[in-house]
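Data deposition worksheet. Section B asks for the primary sequence of the deposited chain exactly as it was used as input, without tags or linkers unless they were present during the calculation. Section C holds the resulting structure in token form. Section D is free text for depositor observations; keep each observation to a single sentence. Incomplete worksheets are returned to the depositor.
Section A, Depositor: J.P.
Section B:
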Amino acid sequence: MNIPWLLAQTITGKEAKLDKALQRIGVESYLPKTRRRITDCNEHSYHTDRAFFPGYIFVRPDNYSGARLRSADLTLKCWWVDFGEGPVSIPNFYVEGIQARQDEHGYVYPDEVTVIHESYAKGQQLRITSGSATGLDALFVRDEDERVIVLLQMFGRMIETPLERGQVTAAYV
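Section C:
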């Protein structure tokens, strides 16, 4: 499926309820969970399930789920993460990378998460997502270890600029 994931925010601790409510109305969602061992003041230990990203859940609405989301009585506070340009879309490979690290019980643990980098084609349009050039578009030139080399329009000409891989994402035009 080529539809990107969106990031929804809810009240911390209510992620599982929101996940079930979304599934009930037929909207695809993904809630990465982790299991933590807690030791209380009496030295008793127990395990507890928690959201891997407290307060957040990944949602992949299709063309028809917008109406279901608006008409559903979710009774939970939920809103799209939005930085002024509409809901934040999360590239599929980020979510797939987290899903690939789940154990047999569906848990993800922080020390096991590795970022799977998206590969880009030469000349592909990228969007810079962090740093002083946030929001600018660039063209992919090549990979260099943990960096990508892009062409960036500066001072009236195209300049090769090295960026950290985490600073760019594919521009969906």
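Section D:
The CA atoms of residues 18 and 75 lie 9 Å apart.
Helices lie at 15-24, 65-71, 92-100.
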